[in-house]
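The records we work with from here on pair a chain with its fold. These numbers are not coordinates but entries in a learned vocabulary of local backbone shapes. To see the layout at work, look at the sequence and tokens printed below.
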Amino acid sequence: MKKITIILLLFTSLSLFSQSRRDKIKALKVSFITERLNLTQQEAQKFWPIYNDFDDNYLKIKHSEIRSINKEFKSNTVTLSDEKANELLNKLMDAENKLHNLDIDLIAKLKKVISPKKIILLKQAEEDFNKKLFEQFKKWREEGRKDN
């Protein structure tokens, strides 16, 4: 319970750090996952390079490929031809397949480093972290609306 309180405190004090928002979130995510998986020092030394490589590649695909596809779709919704829509769908499917393959590759690599149970705990920890992050963003947005 004490550790969860510390993590929640970190969430609320996010704005006090001088790092970029993305760096702050990444640091909180590392802390959250480390606590949830209860990694030994040996496991952590092997786990984090694998996970960080995965996370960097995942974010590149999400933020560059998928975001650009979505922007193109949104900016051309009215004038979008079926041919262009099909092209965008194919690009989207390719990007989604890359994400899926990254996930499969991550699991294969992690099986050599941590137990299958900890891999499942990782998936749950990622989901829980994303939920908490989303809730925090909603809270910030609501607070911002109250200030205006």
The radius of gyration is 19 Å.
